[in-house]
């Protein structure tokens, strides 16, 4: 396989004719994509490859192009097709995130969230893992959230016969609660969509890059709930974010719970129906508030 990759990159003049591969190693194999470290005698790269043909890698390339105005969230792409994507390599110390890095992340996430649109969604569908996100433009957040996230993934879960009658009843009830209680945000804001620890690259005392975006325009507090759910940051992150961009009371009272439902639906489809137990716990918690 490595020989085939090298031949393609050489034929397309992505690699210099004097460039020889010195190191090639697998970093991760998840959700249909292999992420590899590729080092030549001249440069270091990240090479993503996949066997299943879809638009996952070209979509990632297009997202990085769109994010080029925010360098912390963008990467250089040297070559990309449906099978492989040769990308900029970023040094990463893989240490725990400290106070300064938390401040940097909060401040830059606010910059990302300040990118606005007239609609919720995006100009094309994006992916979380290899699971497609329906980003058809919608001018109402509650409608977008219910139809293009809640209903969209719930129908996929139903098609796999994962739901008990009791959980199905609870999910129907939760949908009514969301429709009644979810307020419209002031403006759609651009979110990263997959903010968790392994996607935050750090070097020394700095944040060097935030990678693997799954962007769309949303209520930006959807992202804050995702960060909370994954335990990416502690209390200090929310304090710093709130300093630059106030967090609503509704977030802590309601949205932090309902916005966790969608990632759990996605994990159910990507990994295992065991996540339905977490959905049920959240519904019971929401019912008590």
Automatic annotation (TrEMBL):
Any GO molecular function = kinase activity
Q: Fetch the Gene3D superfamilies from UniProt.
A: 3.90.1200.10
What's in the keyword line of the UniProt record?
Kinase, Transferase
Signal peptide span per the entry?
none
Q: Which Pfam families match?
A: Fructosamin_kin
Family, per entry: Belongs to the fructosamine kinase family.
The name of this protein is: Fructosamine kinase
């Amino acid at each position: 396989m490595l020989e085939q990759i090298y031949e393609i990159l050489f034929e397309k003049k992505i690699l210099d004719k004097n460039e020889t591969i010195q190191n090639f190693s697998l970093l991760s194999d998840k959700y249909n994509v292999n992420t590899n470290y590729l080092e030549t005698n001249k440069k270091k790269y990240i090479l993503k490859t996949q066997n299943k043909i879809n638009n996952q890698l070209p979509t990632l390339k297009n997202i990085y192009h769109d994010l080029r105005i925010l360098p912390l969230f963008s990467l250089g792409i040297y070559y990309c097709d449906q099978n492989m994507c040769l990308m900029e390599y970023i040094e990463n110390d893989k240490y725990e995130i400290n106070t300064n890095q938390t401040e940097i992340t909060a401040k830059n996430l606010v910059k990302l969230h300040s990118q606005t649109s007239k609609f919720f969604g995006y100009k094309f569908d994006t992916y979380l893992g290899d699971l497609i996100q329906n980003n058809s433009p919608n001018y109402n957040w509650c409608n977008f959230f219910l139809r293009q996230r809640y209903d969209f993934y719930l129908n996929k879960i139903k098609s796999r016969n994962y739901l008990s009658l009791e959980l199905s009843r609870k999910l129907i009830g939760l949908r009514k609660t969301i429709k009644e209680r979810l307020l419209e945000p002031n403006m759609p804001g651009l979110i990263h969509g997959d903010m968790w620890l392994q996607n935050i690259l750090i070097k020394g005392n700095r944040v060097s890059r935030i990678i693997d975006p799954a962007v769309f325009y949303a209520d930006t507090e959807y992202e804050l709930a995702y960060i909370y759910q994954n335990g990416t940051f502690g209390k200090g992150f929310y304090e710093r974010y709130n300093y630059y961009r106030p967090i609503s009371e509704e977030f802590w009272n309601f949205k932090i719970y309902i916005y966790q439902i969608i990632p759990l639906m996605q994990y159910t489809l990507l990994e295992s129906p065991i996540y339905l137990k977490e959905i049920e716990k959240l519904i019971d918690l929401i019912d008590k508030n």
